[in-house]
Amino acid sequence: MKRVVALNVVGLTKSVLGAHTPRINAFLGEGQMSSFKPAFPAVTCTAQSSYVTGKSEGDHGIVANGWYDREAAEVKFWKQSNHIVQGEKIWDKLRREVPGFTCAKLFWWYNMYATADWTITPRPMYPADGRKVFDVYTQPMGMREEIKADLGDFPFPTFWGPNAGIPSSEWIASSAKWVEQKHAPTLSLVYLPHLDYGLQKYGPVAEEMGAEIEKIDTVVGDLIDFFEGRDVDVVLLSEYGISKVDQPVHLNRIFREKGWITIKDELGTEMLDCGASKVFAVADHQVAHIYVNDQSIREEVLAVLKAVDGVEEVRNAEESFGSEFSDKGVERSGDFIAVSKENAWFTYYYWMDDALAPDFARCVDIHRKPGYDPVELFLDPQISNPKLKIGKFLLKKKLGFRGLLDVIPLDASLVKGSHGRDNVCEEEQPIFATRGSHGEIHNAEEVFDKICECVKGS
């Protein structure tokens, strides 16, 4: 048995490597790096679920970062229970096969109630008075206060939103060292999200990205030195690459113009009523799940989708997520899955007039929105003094008053990078790299076997 750390450096691809990645280049120069076809869709929850189960998307059932629950008639994004992921997990398999095996799962998604030995995941508290208190959730539960006492609070605002940046990845890296020093897991799974922010915000070829790449290179290089200094083998891994985009596609607005979307007035704003709509889209980067509640218009919906500028391909649920082992993929999937062109991505927007947008549209609110919203990375440029507005909000919050931190713009053209497509060039494919040789790897499911081989020394 060998001890292994898998550093999941989101967005790391051949296209990112170069003058700004000297530490990573040094590691890659002494081993093997494989690029492989990403999971479909090429998004965080799906990719990570393929890595930790070795199963296809149809088998483990994670068809996106979120989907429509047909029974509850609700869109649910970024849920956290590990029970949602079908199939045996890598830590359970290795625990059965390798005596004394232990695992730390640090900020990988679906981390709550996982059977790994040590887990940490972002998890705010929501008191009944309407506040949102930033925090983390750990297993064992007592580790939460212990690690915060040593490292300080997790810098939650830098994990997502307009302030997203390197402090969150630095804290996660410190937590990986902390767990290693106290528990020495056989396998540590470490999630480092920093590249994701700039690549979506500025675009993959933007001048601003040089400094952002250097920041994560420093964090990764430091972790490599730390773990190898403790005789732990390092795996460098990523989930997907980011493509340059300049075309947001608003499928729900198109469906609304066809009369298929039902809108409910709520206090003067418009709410999408999924259960009452004939058709609606749940957007997730460059992939959108299309749910058809009225099957009598199924073929018309398909024809409309194929004619939308920015849509490259339309797949159906059975072809994409059909499985002889599990029905979860098809059950959770839309009737159709739209895949954008390389330069396009899908918004969740359904309102036609920004004055009627729901209150959460201008907030960082990853659970309430019926789709993924990368515009949350930006501050509204129409706000003359955003720092003053945020300061006033925080003061009101401190005094016990409720309010909205409505500083997010509604301009989808601001987004310059996206992902989700599985048919991408090699330069934008995810990577798997080790100090030594690991053989060929062709798809996301094979990451599971490769990590097992690294632990077993085979």
TrEMBL record:
Gene3D superfamilies: Alkaline Phosphatase, subunit A (3.40.720.10). InterPro entries: Alkaline_phosphatase_core_sf (IPR017850), Phosphodiest/P_Trfase (IPR002591). This is Alkaline phosphatase family protein. The lineage of its organism: Bacteria, Pseudomonadati, Verrucomicrobiota, Verrucomicrobiia, Verrucomicrobiales.
